[in-house]
Amino acid sequence: TPVKKEIPEDTKQSAVKYRVHFIKKDYARYLSHLDMLRIFERAFRRAKLTIAYSAGFNPRPKFSFGPALSLGHSSEAEYFDVEIFASMAKSTIDSLNQFLPEGMDILSVKEITENAPKLSKSINSFEYRVNLMGKKLDDMAIANLLDRPSVMINRTSKGHEKEIDIRPYLEDITLHENELDITTNIIDGRTARVDEVTRLLFD
What we know:
The protein has 203 residues and is an alpha+beta fold. It contains 6 helices and 9 strands; from the N terminus they run H-E-H-E-E-H-E-H-E-H-E-E-E-E-H.
């Protein structure tokens, strides 16, 4: 039988909302969204920072992550919002980082208002850097892709395959010797996946 948690009446008034910037690399690249939620919950608990919970019969910690990063990719700009009953300073960040696994580090925190735009609305593009691992690519292949009025691909979602045009999501592609910089737009919560772009360039 589920047990109802008692949530303080002043939770909403007392909690402070923060936007947290962290990196995810090395071993941490293979952590799922659920893994990260559990890891951060545990880190906040061990650092003795009380997280605010939603009201209702099944309260949940007030964590909100930005757009999901594909498993296996590293990132220098991951974000989540959290509400806690404390202020966060440099010492707080240091305390949290000692409880995070290798490859995850909080870089900064910023206090935000309760009605600040959600992360899903605040982040409107992705910037990728792809190591070509010695594969050859010339500027003409990039120009040909960006010059196309539409770029149709087949994408499988929830067991169903559908054809979509990813050209509106392609903002820029730049070649730097053995690295490729790819910038994609986020439109209505949708974007192009970096592996879709590289596959088109090398096929």
